[in-house]
Amino acid sequence: MALKFSEDLVSKNAPERLFKAGCVDIHNVVPTVLPQIFSGASLLEGDGGVGTVKIFNFHDGLPFKFIKEKVEELDTENYSCVYSVPEGGPLGTVFSSIIYRLKLVPSSDGGCVFTLTGEYTVIPGVEGAEIYINGDMKQNVGIFMAVDAFLTASPNAYA
């Protein structure tokens, strides 16, 4: 069973800055802006472009130890990216695949609208997948809000 959820969020930050910090360089940003969740993150393979694999490590006591994300598509001119989860998190126990699509659309006030879409394929027979999806989407919205707040408080970062 495949499930798809989307969330639109508004930012006063320019899409260029939010895309750099929240998509391209996210592995360097989240341990700084959310140190209570992430114990670290790094590139495992690649240079940040398509095919790059990033790992995000969580602190002990959280439901998962890590999650890996692979950049499947990266469009720096149109501020969009697609990444999959090849390992970690609820993959293999709840979901057989997870794909995220991120898109930033410039707004007339110099900010942007950020759209996050999560596509989840549930392993047959697994009950309660919606609980994981709801938590995952809330976590991703929280990450966006933390990165957005960091950029607002640091106007020269990713300028």
Report the span from N to C terminus.
Answer: 42 Å
The CATH superfamily is identified as: START domain
Give the DSSP E fraction (strand runs of 2 or more residues).
Answer: 35-45%
How many H/I helical runs? 3
Q: Let me know the average pLDDT.
A: 95
Range of helix content: 25-40%
Low-confidence stretches: none
CATH class: Alpha Beta
Rg over CA atoms, rounded to whole Å, is: 15 Å
Please give the CATH architecture.
2-Layer Sandwich
Shape: globular
- H/E series: EHHEEEEEEH
User: What is the count of distinct domains?
Assistant: 1
The CATH topology assignment is Alpha-D-Glucose-1,6-Bisphosphate, Chain A, domain 4
- State the total count of DSSP E strands: 7
Which class do the helix and strand fractions yield?
alpha+beta
| Sheet with most strands | 7 strands, antiparallel
Q: Which strand order spans the largest sheet, edge to edge or round the barrel?
A: 1-7-6-5-4-3-2
